TrEMBL record:
NCBIfam families the record matches: PRK06027.1 (NF004684), PurU (TIGR00655)
UniProt-recorded Gene Ontology molecular function terms: formyltetrahydrofolate deformylase activity
UniProt keyword Hydrolase, yes or no: yes
Function, in words: Catalyzes the hydrolysis of 10-formyltetrahydrofolate (formyl-FH4) to formate and tetrahydrofolate (FH4).
One of the protein's GO biological processes: one-carbon metabolic process
Entry annotation: catalytic residues: D236
Record-annotated Formyl transferase N-terminal domain positions: 97-273
Pathway(s) of this molecule: Purine metabolism; IMP biosynthesis via de novo pathway; formate from 10-formyl-5,6,7,8-tetrahydrofolate: step 1/1
Protein name from the UniProt record: Formyltetrahydrofolate deformylase
Length: 292
């Protein structure tokens, strides 16, 4: 049975390497030599040489030798990483564990659950948390635990600590704000940095805040959209992962804009979650590099 025999390929352990560093000669050669010397096959490779920021971003998916783990690869790659001052990570096929937060609008939660059950989300939904009871039935129907966490100015700090406890208890890798309409505190945002994605129901940077469709209606826009971004303390300012738009016209009132916008929200969010779970999103200062 040769290396290229599909049965070998299926049994081969799959990994992803992502890295960012100052652009200079020899980086790709160092990476490919490291993988070749260990008998790995490169299945997918993408890189972006950001000339403006003089930074190279790279994502390599590779497979082979099942005796390796991300930790062992990290250990053996350290010398190269130090030489090039790289920020890097190795990932295996372990699926990201996802906690979804929702308030009253359930279309994004519904879409995420549908894609998860169909195996196309790229991660595993483990838990649903909400500040309303509205979508308990949807979670129950999907066999998902549902935690009701009401938030008032008086209970916000305790509610946020409870959320962090749930993240630890369930070994959560990613928190998804699927139309969760409470502003997270600075401390919570710091605790969830790089592992919380929000869907904002406008084409940012336009119409920030809680009522973007009313703002869009008042402005008379001809396109409405949605933006999936990492959550930061600055409301609706986090690094953007994906955006989607839909054409509208003068006949759409705020309610109709909200209704048609739901499709854009669900699409942008599910793509952003899948790309994050497939380690296709690299943070680059205040923006992202997405190897789709
Ligand atoms: N720290 C952050 N928290 C949250 C973000 C974020 O970017 N950073 N995104 C929001 C979602 N969102 C827009 O996408 C949003 C949610 C809520 C509000 C808001 O003003 N909420 C009011 C209460 C509204 C209500 O109870 O219905 C408030 O919290 O006082 C603005 C934007 C999720 N959190």
């Amino acid at each position: 049975m040769t290396q290229n025999d599909p049965r070998v390929k299926d049994k081969a352990q799959k990994f992803v390497l992502t890295l960012s560093c100052v652009e200079r000669a020899g980086i790709v050669q160092a990476v490919t030599t490291f993988l070749f010397e260990r008998g790995f096959n490169i299945d997918e490779h993408q890189q972006f040489d950001d000339g403006l920021r003089e930074t190279l971003h790279l994502r390599t998916a590779f497979s082979g030798s099942p005796e390796y783990t991300p930790e062992r690869l990290q250990e053996e790659f350290n010398a190269i990483a130090d030489r090039f001052e790289m920020k890097f990570s190795f990932h295996d096929q372990t699926k990201e564990r996802i906690l979804v937060m929702v308030s009253k609008f359930g279309h994004c939660l519904n879409d995420l659950i549908f894609r998860w059950r169909g195996g196309s989300l790229g991660g595993d939904i483990v838990l649903v948390v909400s500040n309303h009871e509205t979508h308990r039935a949807m979670a129950d129907a999907a066999g998902l635990p549902f935690v009701y966490l009401p938030v008032t100015p008086e209970t916000k700090a305790d509610a946020e600590q409870r959320l962090l406890d749930l993240v630890d208890e369930h070994n959560i890798d990613l928190v998804v704000l699927a139309r969760y309409m409470q502003v997270l505190s600075d401390d919570l945002c710091r605790s969830l940095e790089g592992r919380a994605i929000n869907i904002h129901h406008s084409f940012l940077p336009g119409f920030k805040g809680a009522r973007p469709y009313h703002q869009a209606y008042d402005r008379g826009v001809k396109l409405v959209g949605a933006t999936a971004h990492y959550v930061t303390a600055e409301l609706d300012e986090g690094p953007i992962i994906e955006q989607e738009v839909i054409r509208v016209d003068h006949s759409y009132g705020p309610t109709t804009l909200s209704t048609v916008g739901q499709d854009a929200e669900a699409l942008a969010l599910s793509r952003a979650v899948r790309w994050h779970c497939e380690h296709r999103v690299l943070l680059d200062q205040t923006s992202t590099v997405v190897f789709r």
